[in-house]
Amino acid sequence: MATMSIGKAWEEAVAFVAREASLLLPVALLFVALPGLILDQMTPPQLQAWFAQPKMETIPAMPPGFGLAMMLTIILIWFGSLALFALALRPGISVGEALRLSLARLPVLIGTALVAAGALAAVVILAVLVGVVFSLASKALAATLGLLLGLGAAGLVFYASIRLVLLNPVVIDNQAGVMASLRAAWALTRGHFWRLFGFLILVMILSTIASTAAQAVVGVLGGLIAGVDGAKLAGSIAAAIVSTVIQVYMLAMLARLYRQAVG
């Protein structure tokens, strides 16, 4: 098992981003920040409130075409992240070459997502069937078992997401297919779960604090100039930019961790 140093990855990522920011940031802003910002502006207030506090019994109606817009946004962000990994993993590659490579490997990444979604659906269906069987004997027992199965499924998804955190660099750095990429990404993180978990939690906390602060400060300034609507738009743009910059550093670190894992 290869060693994995978060500190070394951070030093290399900072140096890399400082050196190649003129290549990385335009790609990140165009294919990561902008699609997310557009989708955010398209999302109705009641749907935004539900995303913040989801409740299965009060799911708001989704506007026509919003589901398609969400899927396109996700695919664009995946495309941009693959291009960023290509720039981070292949020194000397141009932005155009990175984008073409990302487009060529995007179907594999989509395929891995479909496989993961299928596996999750199978787990959910199995849990529902078990709950139905036990409900015939006792509703109380079925409710308890349903809660335990729900927690178990959530834990499984969480564990798998950490173990597959190097999937994007695997996809962009190799010519392997869907299943081979999944197996390779899973193997590379063996023995590194808690280290990667701590790193991702730290990045999530930092991104949340920084983007929230930027949204609040710029939102106030925007409100003074253009009123409530201006405050919302200015705050959203500031939060998206700050969050994207942090993501660039995170992806650069993941690229370095990937190189450590493959030796």
TrEMBL record:
<feature type="domain" description="DUF7847">
    <location>
        <begin position="4"/>
        <end position="260"/>
    </location>
</feature>
<keyword id="KW-0472">Membrane</keyword>
<dbReference type="InterPro" id="IPR057169">
    <property type="entry name" value="DUF7847"/>
</dbReference>
<keyword id="KW-0812">Transmembrane</keyword>
<dbReference type="Pfam" id="PF25231">
    <property type="entry name" value="DUF7847"/>
</dbReference>
<feature type="transmembrane region" description="Helical">
    <location>
        <begin position="196"/>
        <end position="225"/>
    </location>
</feature>
<feature type="transmembrane region" description="Helical">
    <location>
        <begin position="21"/>
        <end position="39"/>
    </location>
</feature>
<feature type="transmembrane region" description="Helical">
    <location>
        <begin position="237"/>
        <end position="258"/>
    </location>
</feature>
<feature type="transmembrane region" description="Helical">
    <location>
        <begin position="108"/>
        <end position="134"/>
    </location>
</feature>
<feature type="transmembrane region" description="Helical">
    <location>
        <begin position="140"/>
        <end position="160"/>
    </location>
</feature>
<protein>
    <submittedName>
        <fullName>Glycerophosphoryl diester phosphodiesterase membrane domain-containing protein</fullName>
    </submittedName>
</protein>
<feature type="transmembrane region" description="Helical">
    <location>
        <begin position="66"/>
        <end position="87"/>
    </location>
</feature>
<keyword id="KW-1133">Transmembrane helix</keyword>
